[in-house]
Structure formats: C-alpha cells, structure tokens
Amino acid sequence: MTASGPDLRLLGRPGCHLCDDMIAVLRPFLNAGRFTLTLVDVDSDPALAARYGLLIPVLLDGDLEIAHYTLSPEVLEAYLHQAGQA
Fold first, then answer.
1. Whole-prediction pTM
2. C-alpha Rg value of the chain to the nearest Å
3. Which of 2, 38, 44, 80 has its CA 20 to 30 A from that of 29?
4. For residues 7 and 46, what is the distance between their CA atoms, to the nearest angstrom?
5. Is 57 within 8 Å of 65 (Cβ atoms)?
6. What domains can you pick out in the chain, each with its CATH number?
7. Which residues of 33-65 are buried (b: 16+ CB within 10 A; e: fewer)?
8. InterPro entries from the entry (predicted)?
9. Distance (Å, rounded) from C-alpha 84 to C-alpha 47?
10. Residues 6+ apart with CB under 8 A from 55
11. What contacts 41, CB < 8 A, 6 or more positions away?
C-alpha cells in the first residue's frame, strides 16, 4: 500500500515502552496509508540524542514536533486533517 500523506519520523530507542505504545497508536493510520513512517534510534545521532534524548518517543513531520511521550488517536487524526490527509 502506498501512503499519500506526510513522511513522519519516530525517534525512540530499543526497549522503550512509551515508544511501543506510540507505535501501537500509529499502526492503524500507517496501515491505512495515511503517512509513511521512519523509525530512528535517537542514540544513533549525537545531535538527536542531545536534543530529544529525554523526550522520546518524539513524532516529527520534518522539524515539526507532533507529539512526545504520548500520542492519542485524536491528536494524530487532527494533525493529519490539518496536514490535508482527511
């Protein structure tokens, strides 16, 4: 399935339960092709680790932070609607 929405990045790290929780919220939207998602280990880049290391998980659209720590389906739906993915 080809996504037609934004290219989102999820910054996290292995073993992060909040990251797993956010992925669970993202999964139905991702499976519906509402966006593409790249998972990024925040510790793989010193600049990312310095900026976001204590905020993970962080969901980004480019440099725009959509959410950190937690994400609700309602917040994601509102963002996608605003981004033109109604």
1. 0.91
2. 12
3. 44
4. 22
5. no
6. 7-82 (3.40.30.10)
7. ebbebeebebeeeeebbeebeeebbbbbbeeee
8. Glutaredoxin-like, Thioredoxin-like_sf
9. 30
10. 68, 69
11. 12, 13, 14
